[in-house]
Amino acid sequence: MTDQASPPSLYAPREPIFPRKVTGFFRRFKWAILVVTLGIYYITPWIRWDRGPSLPDQAVLVDLASRRFYFFWIEIWPHEFYFVAGLLIMAGLGLFLFTSALGRVWCGYTCPQTVWTDLFILVERWIEGDRNARVRLHKASWGVRKWRLRLTKWAVWLAIAVATGGAWVFYFTDAPTLARDLVSLTAHPAAYITIAILTATTFIFGGFLREQVCIYMCPWPRIQAAMMDPDTITVAYRDWRGEPRGKGNKSRRGKVKALQAEADAQAAGPGAARYSGTPYRQDDKPAAPVLSPVSETGDCIDCMACVNVCPMGIDIRNGQQMECITCALCIDACDDVMDKIGKPRGLIDYLALSDETAERAGAPVKPLWKHILRPRTILYTAIWLLIGLGLIYALFVRSDIELTVSPVRNPTYVTLSDGTIRNIYDVRLRNKSGEDRDFRLRLTSDEILRIELEGTDDLSLNIPADTTVLQRVYVTARPQDQAANSAATDLRIWVEDTTAQTRASKATTFNGKGN
After folding, report:
1. Confidence (pLDDT) at 257
2. For residue 241, with 0-12 CB atoms within 10 Å meaning exposed, 13-18 middle and 19 or more buried, which class applies?
């Protein structure tokens, strides 16, 4: 029997990426966004907002028990879920708008996966050192020092993950009360389960999976291509200016000698870079071009600084790639190198691909506003604004008093002993104000009809603040009245807030005996 060669494996194990520390405008901007977004996330549940004695005083609260959503002075009821749906549509359109105009700025700056990964990498750098130290630690055998550093890092990661899961549950109930219950172990089991799940996902996604979440788990990298075109502003490499790569003349080689030595040492570690999305080791790294002493070289000295700072482990010089999240850290790294070798900044920069082509040909480039204001972005902006204005209008014109009317159809009408025809209705009265109100019911119709409330001889009801009350209502017609002998008679039930002098109504029908 002849042995057949086994098929090649389609699985490639993940090579860890150890981003190098970088300073610059975009890195500082990302730190600022990290502080702001995490501050909002962790602090918001503790902000108080006085809504009155009978309502919760948490500024942002998703009250599942009472089926309410509170956002400062705004209160959303279950039947007003269209506000939430509208906000979600606006968020989606906003994502389309920013992606078509500026590329994956959401992924690079404000995505939760990016923010928490940045935080976890910062902790890792504080404890284990910068890139070279982390590479050496990764390659070292397990000993006391490695265990100590790893356990310390994992403990800090776990604390951040617990705080993340804990902050999430505070949005769904009163934060101070839940915090006391969690500490005293008297909280509902759902709270502990939710915290445990979010802690595990934060710990694993931010600490271990990192770029794998963006590449393999998130669908957005595959959708973004439909949102972008050559006029989209994104992170790109000026190939016409950087190529061919090389150290150049003797004077230039002297300036970059230290940079190249550092880059060679950094590239020796696992996960140092990827070319065209494929991991490489030091022994199979593509060789630098061989240049003669008189060769003209580009501004790129192939120092690998842009690759070593990339949290996705890609080489932006290979062109646009699905893995790129446009975090712009490669811009900071490259600008720093250009400053050191006396070359102008912008070899890697935010630019449109159409501009790169124009620059290569020596043609003038479009101004920034022409890249931003394109038919696609204008359309997204117009739809986004229309939805936003519609929601604002609906928010400010809604009344604090509402009612729904549901006729009881079994039976459709009742004949009383004196021949009177009676219809029964379930009227749901909703007081959306922050104080108790007196509501008065009445009806209007072209025919003679009378209204009564079950359980009271009066037509007025006291409705507590922020409460819905179900009231059974009887509407009757005397035997001699036209409504009693007609198949159906239109009527309208009204409710009036006697304090605020506002009212609302619902149309319905009165069923008679017919002809």
Report:
1. 54
2. middle
Claim to verify: residue 223 and residue 267 sit in the same structural domain: no
Among 497, 485, 387, 317, smallest CA distance to 92 is for 387
Residue 282 and residue 162 share a domain: no
**Within a 10 A sphere around the Cβ of 148, how many other Cβ atoms?**
11
- 């910068």: which residue's tokens? 130
Contact of 206 with 157, CB cutoff 8 Å: yes
pLDDT confidence of residue 275: 30
Rounded CA separation 477/489 (Å): 11
Find, among 229, 236, 219, 237, the residue nearest to 99 by Cα.
Answer: 229
pLDDT for residue 4: 62
Cβ atoms of 443 and 459 within 8 Å: the answer is no
- Please tell me whether residue 52 adopts helix, strand or coil conformation: coil
Give, in order, the Cα–Cα distances in Å from 241 to each of 35, 264, 320, 332, 334: 36, 23, 17, 17, 13
User: Number of folded domains in the chain?
Assistant: 3
Structural tokens at position 244: 């061919």
**Residue 287 forms beta bridges with which residues?**
none
Q: How far is CA 364 from CA 349, 356, 367, 371, 372, in A?
A: 17, 10, 9, 14, 17
Print the domain residue range for 335. Answer: 233-363
Q: What is the mean pLDDT of each run of 10 residues along the chain (515 residues)?
A: 63 85 96 96 94 85 88 88 92 93 92 96 96 94 95 97 95 94 94 96 94 90 85 92 76 53 51 33 36 62 94 93 93 95 94 89 88 92 95 88 88 90 92 86 90 87 88 92 89 89 90 79
One domain, residues 193 and 257: no
47-to-33, 97, 195, 303, 453 alpha-carbon distances in Å: 20, 31, 21, 49, 43
Rg (CA), the chain: 34
Domain-located, residue 13: no
Tell me whether strands 467-477 and 450-453 are parallel, antiparallel or unpaired: antiparallel
Q: What is the spatial distance between Cα 32 and Cα 26, in angstroms, rounded to a whole number?
A: 10
Q: Which amino acid makes up residue 334?
A: C
Query: Among 227, 257, 288, where does a domain finish?
Result: 227
Dihedral sign (CA 333, 335, 337, 339): negative
